[in-house]
Design goal:
The chain is globular, with a radius of gyration of 19 Å. The protein has 2 domains: about 210 residues, Rossmann fold; about 100 residues, UDP-galactose 4-epimerase, domain 1 (Alpha-Beta Complex), CATH 3.90.25. Helix 9 crosses helix 11. By secondary structure, the protein is an alpha/beta fold. A 7-stranded parallel β-sheet has the order 3-2-1-4-5-6-10, with helices on both faces. The chain is about 35% helix and about 20% strand. It binds nicotinamide-adenine-dinucleotide. The site of nicotinamide-adenine-dinucleotide (NAD) has 31 residues, from helix 1, strand 2, helix 4, strand 5 and strand 7.
Length: about 325
């Protein structure tokens, strides 16, 4: 089958990462089907509505009836639908388990029973919890130490998925770094975007635990990693986990602020640092495996994402960036 005859199902395609992925897959000639409950609205999908290779199912991955027809005729699924982030999962842990665990397992069983070949799951680097010493880089062999409902659901489903051995079924877990930058569904509740927004709007910024490390990756690069995974050889991706990001884009929070202040030097006095000595999410991550196996390199750095956010806000393209629709809680 030629690439442009393949149909890819994106769950959560109306979201921050999903809308970027829809765009890239359509550009590469795929047929794209999205299933999404439109929890944060559906504006991000407006640009695709009139594309004959795009199809939207407003539906819920928790519902057998919604999945039955949606999963039919699909080559690969990129599973992004979730209750995303610690605050949203802590707010409603039952819903988080219902979607991230039970719904994901239902989707997976449907995929296997309907002969879907590829299943790419959006997991997270926060599964690692924390590094043991400050000079460690965590890699895919490092122990997973989930410390929240969010990461517990992600680790649990990774184990379920990678434990499934069926002929012709090739599952992959992509552990995304924390995303930044713009997509058709902007999010301003993620560290880089939130810090850049506050300072671009001339506000005060309080930074808690400025010394702690985290890896970051541009949202459109995360989408590109999903495309590369779908297009890789079966043997390279089957039953594998890959961290997605770049070694150079691990930063302490203080370094993020410094990158923003390079572009907004007049805001230096607006930043205060609040001491915090324990953060269970202090981790630096190695991205060597996805680079050497799939040839993935992120095209954009944190500084590029900061520039995008500042530009969009200064131009007034996003009228009310504090609106609820740009946050997951
Ligand atoms: N953004 C990040 O920094 C980041 C980092 C690591 C991992 N991830 C993972 O990547 C994926 C996408 O994240 P995002 O930032 O695009 O989140 P998002 O909240 O923007 O998108 C999630 C989408 O899933 C949909 N959805 C929720 N419940 C659903 C259900 N029951 N049925 C169908 N659709 C449903 C929502 O309506 C939304 O459009 C998530 O699985 C997330 O855990 C994201």
């Amino acid at each position: 089958m030629g690439q442009n005859e393949k149909t890819i199902l994106i769950t959560g395609g109306a979201g921050y990462v999903g809308s970027a992925l829809v765009q890239q897959l359509l550009q590469r000639g795929y047929q794209v089907r999205v299933i999404d409950t439109l929890l944060h609205g559906g504006n991000a999908l407006l640009p695709f509505l009139y594309n004959s290779r795009f199809e939207l199912v407003v539906g819920d991955i928790r519902l057998d009836t919604d999945l039955d027809t949606t999963v039919r005729g699909i080559y690969g699924i990129v599973h992004l639908a979730a209750i995303v982030g610690e605050p949203a999962c802590n707010h409603d842990p039952e819903l988080a388990v219902a979607v991230n665990t039970i719904g994901s397992e239902l989707l997976c069983r449907k995929a296997v029973s309907q002969g879907v070949k590829r299943f790419v799951f959006a997991s997270t680097c926060s599964n690692y919890g924390t590094m043991s010493t400050d000079d460690t880089y965590l890699d895919e062999t490092s122990p997973l130490k989930p410390i929240s409902v969010y990461s517990e659901t992600k680790v649990g489903f990774e184990r379920y998925l990678l434990g499934l051995n069926r002929d012709g079924f090739y599952p992959t877990c992509l552990r995304f770094a924390t995303a930044f930058g713009l997509s058709l569904r902007p999010r301003f509740d993620l560290t880089v975007n939130e810090f850049a927004k506050e300072l671009a709007l001339g506000r005060k910024l309080e930074v808690f635990g400025e010394q702690f490390w985290r890896p970051y990756c541009h949202v459109r690069d995360l989408a590109n990693a999903c495309v590369l995974t779908l297009e890789a050889d079966d043997d390279d991706i089957s039953h594998q986990a890959f961290n997605v990001g770049s070694n150079s884009e691990n930063y302490r929070k203080k370094q993020l602020v410094e990158l923003i202040l390079k572009q907004l030097p007049q805001m230096a006095d607006n930043v205060t640092y609040v001491e915090r000595n324990d953060d269970p999410r202090n981790y630096r991550v190695s991205f060597d495996k996805i680079n050497s196996t799939l040839g993935f390199t992120a095209k954009r750095k944190v500084a590029d994402g900061i520039e995008e956010i500042i530009k969009a806000l200064k131009l007034g393209l996003i009228k009310n960036p504090d609106d609820r629709s740009y946050r997951n809680l």
